[in-house]
């Protein structure tokens, strides 16, 4: 069937599309009609999650045309769109600490929680699962290097180095370097793999026409911008109502809501015994958060005149992200995963998240 043929949506696509539109309408009504402090937050969070899933499904269909390497990069990059919008609106509202914790929380959620759930589900259903050890080593090394560059401004602040008095300038330099590193790593990422997830999807499910995929992607992106604004607007009243600190809200709530694609798709892939592609998707997201999202927010916060974001994080955040990266590298470097490793990752995430409950 050609791309000009009639749309070939399946039942799950209609569920996501219909649910997303209903959630967006409800989120708008809750925002403009003042439904209290809790309802607007919950409805907008659901809307962000469903729109993120729609973005992921659209990118998956586009990636089918471009190859598996491009699929992973596109899905991770556009999958972070909701978090980009949420973070920008949060900076506009002056919630700098929420954004700082959300950036690190997104890395932790993917490396510990999502990867842990994926390994647990895949391991329980299929036993030990194989990973591409060479790909795991390559991505892990790049992740270590990127995180090292990300936390240098924080280390300079801790030891009161001369650079600590130039926090903003050092953050700008680190941001430009990280963006350049991403640009240099992109060609290899796009070429990685010759067969895989895209081909399997093409055989298992009907393909969407390109026009449909691009159209839904554009609509989801525009709606995500509006819903993210409503989500941030409802965030502070909800935090006060539940007694949640800025740190916990950013590290857990915003991070998980903004990474809905990896949360759902990564686990689905592992459940289908496609552990290698589940790992690639899950690990690509924190990598792009480190290389693209965080430095882009540093620069955009200045361009738009929002509250200035720098790359100086609290000592506990730095310790947590370094620990998470090292654990992920140790667990995946052998090229195998099992349910016990998955449960261990989840356990570490729970303890780390609990440590931020009080702020």
Compact overview of the structure:
This protein is 80% helix and 1% strand. It has 359 residues and is mainly alpha-helical.
Describe this structure in words.
This protein is an all-alpha fold. It has a single domain, classed as NCX, central ion-binding region (A middle domain of Talin 1, Up-down Bundle). Helices cover 80% and strands 1% of the residues. A two-stranded antiparallel sheet has the order 1-2. Helix 4 runs antiparallel to helix 10 (246-258), helix 5 runs antiparallel to helix 14 (339-355) and helix 6 (133-158) runs antiparallel to helix 7 (167-191). The radius of gyration is 20 Å and the shape is globular. The protein starts with 10 loop residues before the first helix and ends with a helix.
How does the SSE layout of this entry go?
Blueprint: H1 11-32, H2 39-66, H3 68-79, H4 81-92, H5 96-126, E1 129-130, H6 133-158, H7 167-191, H8 197-204, H9 210-242, H10 246-258, H11 260-271, H12 275-303, H13 315-332, E2 336-337, H14 339-355
Antiparallel strand pairs: 1-2
What is the end-to-end distance?
55 Å
Please describe the biggest sheet, giving its number of strands, its sense, and whether it closes into a barrel. 2 strands, antiparallel
Per DSSP, the total helix count is 14
Q: Assign the CATH architecture.
A: Up-down Bundle
Overall domain count = 1
Pick out the low-confidence regions.
Answer: 1-6, 193-203
Major sheet: order of its strands? 1-2
């Amino acid at each position: 069937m050609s791309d000009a043929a009639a749309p070939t949506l399946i039942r799950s696509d209609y569920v996501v599309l219909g649910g997303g539109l209903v959630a967006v309408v409800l989120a708008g009504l809750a925002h403009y009609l003042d439904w209290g402090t809790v309802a607007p937050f919950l409805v907008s969070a659901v809307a962000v999650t469903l729109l993120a899933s729609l973005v992921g499904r659209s990118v998956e269909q586009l990636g089918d045309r471009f190859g598996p390497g491009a699929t992973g990069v596109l899905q991770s990059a556009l999958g972070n769109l909701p978090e980009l919008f949420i973070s920008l609106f949060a900076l506009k509202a002056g919630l700098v600490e929420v954004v700082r914790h959300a950036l690190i929380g997104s890395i932790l959620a993917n490396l510990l929680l999502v990867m842990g759930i994926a390994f647990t589900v895949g391991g329980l259903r299929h036993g030990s699962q194989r990973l591409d050890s060479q790909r795991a080593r390559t991505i892990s090394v790049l992740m270590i290097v990127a995180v090292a560059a990300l936390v240098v401004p924080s280390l300079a602040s801790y030891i009161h180095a001369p650079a600590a008095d130039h926090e903003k300038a050092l953050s700008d330099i680190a941001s430009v370097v990280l963006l350049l590193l991403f640009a240099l790593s992109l060609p290899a990422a796009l070429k990685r793999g010759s067969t895989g997830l895209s081909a399997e999807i093409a055989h298992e499910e009907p393909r969407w026409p390109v026009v449909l995929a691009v159209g839904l992607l554009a609509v989801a992106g525009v709606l995500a911008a509006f819903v993210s604004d409503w989500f941030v607007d409802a965030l502070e009243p909800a935090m006060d109502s539940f007694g949640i600190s800025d740190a916990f809200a950013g590290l857990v709530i915003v991070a998980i809501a903004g990474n809905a694609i990896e949360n759902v798709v990564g686990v689905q892939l592992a459940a289908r015994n496609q552990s290698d592609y589940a790992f690639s998707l899950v690990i690509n997201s924190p990598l792009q958060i480190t290389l693209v999202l965080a430095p882009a927010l540093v620069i955009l916060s200045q361009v738009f005149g929002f509250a200035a974001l720098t790359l100086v994080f609290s000592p506990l955040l730095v310790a947590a992200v370094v620990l998470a990266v090292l654990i992920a590298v140790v667990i995946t470097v052998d090229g195998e995963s099992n349910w016990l490793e998955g449960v261990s990752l989840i356990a570490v995430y729970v303890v780390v998240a609990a440590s931020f409950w009080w702020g």
